[in-house]
Amino acid sequence: xxxxxPYGHLPYTPLRNDRMGCLMMATESTEAHGxxxxxxxxxxxxxxxxxxxxxxATLSGRTLSDFVVASAEEAASKVIQxxxxxxxxxxxxxxxxxxxxxxxxxxxxxxxxxxxxxxRMGS
Length: 123
Description:
The protein has helices at about 45-60, 65-85, 90-100, 110-120, and strands at about 10-15, 20-30, 40-45. By secondary structure, the chain is of the alpha+beta class. A three-stranded antiparallel β-sheet has the order 1-2-3, with no helix packed on it. The radius of gyration is 26 Å and the shape is elongated.
C-alpha cells in the first residue's frame, strides 16, 4: 500500500533525464508484495520513442515493460562496470606489478607517521 506524507518522504521522486528530454518518475511501494517487483519506474516518452521500444520488445518476444527494464538494467551495469574498471597497457601492468612486488623503501615522512602511530597506539 502506498501512503503519502504531508511532508518529508514522498513515495515518488521526480527525475529529469535532460539528454533524452524525458521526464521520469521513480515510485516506491511501502509494502512488499512477496518476492516480485515492488518498486515502480515511470517514464514520459514521445510517441515515436514508445513505438520504437514496443517494436523492439515485440521482436525480442518480451513485453514492453520487460524489454525496457532489461535494457535499462544492462545499460546501467555497463556504465557501472566502465567506471569501476581500470584498464592498463601492457607496460603499465608490468610497472604496477613490479612496484607491488618490489616496493621502494619508506621515505622519512612515512617513517615519522609510522612512529607517531606506534606511540599513539602503544605498540
